[in-house]
Each structure stands twice: as C-alpha cells, then as structure tokens.
Model the fold of this input.
Amino acid sequence: MILLIKICKIPFHYFEFVKPIEDILKKLNIEFITVHYNDLTSEMFSKVDKVIISGTSLKDNSFLDDIDKFDWIKEFDKPVLGICGGMHILGLIYDGKLKEVQEIGLNTINFNEEFFGFNGKTEVYELHNLCVESSEFNVIAISEECPQAIKHKHRLLYAVLFHPEVRNKKLIERFVKC
Amino acid sequence: MCTTNFAVCTTNVYLFKGIPILMKLAVLFSGGKDSTFAAYLAREQGHEISCLIAIFSENPESYMFHTPSISKVKKQAESANIPLIIQKTKGEKEVELKDLAAAIQKAKVKYGINGVVTGAVESAYQASRIQKICDSLDLDCFNPLWQKNPEEYWDDLLKNGFEIIITGVGADGMGKEWLGKKIDRKMLIKLKEIERKYRIHLSFEGGEAETFVLNCPLFTRALEICDKKIYGKQNSWTMEIEVT
Done:
C-alpha cells in the first residue's frame, strides 16, 4: 500500500498535482490512500509500504510554514519519494536551504547514475520557483540551474524537482514496484 | 459536492486551518469541451468564476489558441451569466502571449481575480507559457484537466450532461462527415474505433478535432445551431456556426 501525501492548500490543485499520480497507481492496480499532510495519523504509517509526497502550484507555498509536520520522516524507515514541493520538504527536514530558481516547461536534465530506470540526458517537465540543497543528500541529476534528483546518503529517501507524473511516469512506476 | 478528502468541506466551502479558501477565478475560454469543463470543475469546487477570457486569434495555425466557432463564446457566456473579456491577437508566436497577458491583467484589474483556470490536458507548450504569465502577474494557475485519462474524461463530460459537437476535423479517420456530430455514448464508441485504427488521441490533443459546447450545467439554457457553413479541403474541415 502506498501513502500519497498531498500538500496543496487549495483543494482545486488536487486535479493537477495529485490525481495524475493516483492515475499511475490505479493503472498498476496498486492500492493507495491519499491524505493531506494535516490529516496524517501514526496508524497510516504502519499500514503502508512506501510514501509519495506530491507537489503543488507555484503560488501554493503554505506547506513551507508547516515543515515541522513532516518530522516523522526522520523516524520513518520505509522508502519515500518527494516530488517538487515534496523534494523541498525532504531537503528542509535535513537542514537544506531553499534557493530561488525558476524552471517552467520541458527541460533536459542529466542523470549521472541510474535513478529508477533513468540515466543520462532526459527530458522532463518542470514547474518550480524554488530548489533545495542539502548536504545530507547525494545529487543524482542536475539541470543547468540546480539539483533535479537526490538520494539521501544513508536512508531510503528520494526526491525529484521535476514532475515525473507528466513526462516520466515510469519513474513513479519503478519507485512503487521496486 | 466534495470530491477531495481535505480536512473540512461543508457545502462546497473548503476550510484550511479554519479559513475559507474561495478563489475569484478567470477561465481561459475557447467554447470547446476543455475550457468549459475546466470552468465547470472550478465552480463545482466552490470557486467564483469572475470572468471568461476569450482570445480571438487571426492565425488559424496558432499553437496557443483554438479558433473554430470562437465568436460564439459570447452566446455561451450569456447563457452562463459570466462576464466575458475578449482579446484580439494577430496570433504571431510570442506576440500572442503578450496579448494573453494583457487580457489576464485586464481581468485582474476589473474583477480582482486571484487565479486563472485553463483547460490544458497534455500541451506542455500551452501550460508552461500560461504558468509563466500567471506567475509574473502574481496569480495562481489551475489546470484541472492536466494529464486526464481520455476515456475517464469523456465519461465525466457525458455523465455531467455536456452536449458537445464537432466543429473542426483534421486527422485520418475523422472526415467532413464528423462536422456537427454530437458526441454521445454511441458516437464515443465510434471515436474509440477510430482511435484504435488510426491512433488518434481520444481527447483530440493532437489537433484531431475541435469541439463546441451547446449545453452544460453552467448554462442557464441550451444553445441551438441556427446556421452553419462548412469549409476546408482534404482532411482539414471547419464548420462555422451561428447559435441562438
């Protein structure tokens, strides 16, 4: 079972940032629950095998004021994949710093090693005004501007700044299947 | 109806930490199924549709704006009782983006909108350009049909009473005979056959067809076609309609 955590303050963003991920999981017949980060319970964490933290819109940054609500990540011993805003959260939990970097639209990034089936130059869809850098993570992919895929040095925490649910659906498929 | 399981949802009013989140939104509107359904979803979510923005492009090959039957959006806006902002553009590649930004800015000043809704489904070109414009104008941007599965999409449209006709065709398997056809469950089966045979995109994301909405839950009355003119050649045909 996958726990899909949404971070949108405005529920209307669900359709753009959460539902496409749900559709990938449905297509794979993978059981999941979708919950807003304000509604997480310890029971949920014990039931699930992996966690995905979705992104949200450029103007919807209220989750950044609630980073303490993600402290559970430090104790959670199962794999977590953060997407865009989800990457910001993972980085900030580990003392990362946010930087203003805007990348919007299709972009070519470079994976320096295999990351859920992706390697080398890859076209991705981006939608962010911020990026995060944390020394606790290894950088696996970069764009001309900033880190695009990271993996925690000791834990099963992964994150991408781009939106794999748009042009790189296989990344999510491989994360949930591996 | 509440379709998402956020903390509190009472009669279409969403609360976040006890504060109601209702947006004043402008919908980029072409009169086709995508922008009309996006507008419908915005209202279903409890937001105010402050205005519709229609771009009249003089360039029929525009990557940004769909042109068939666009002048009829006036009738649709009247039926929906929603103010309409009309913006003309020559449709030159980057100039049309400036014209779009000007129209959105007009909506911001006139109606105090704090967000823009689009019917983008697959086009990264369209979506990213609108995202950039909204960001530069400090507006939120909503793409509720983004990546939507085509079969689920048609099912949602028909389930919610959308009356959609074909007003333009431009693909193998979809000839002149499709013009004016209303897409109901029967026609959808035919469309799926064409999809299998000719590999068209069922939501017409490859420009296979243009659509016009005659009726939907946003409208106070259904529109009727009173005149039509068909023109085109080979595998590209358009039906210009007059509606009342």
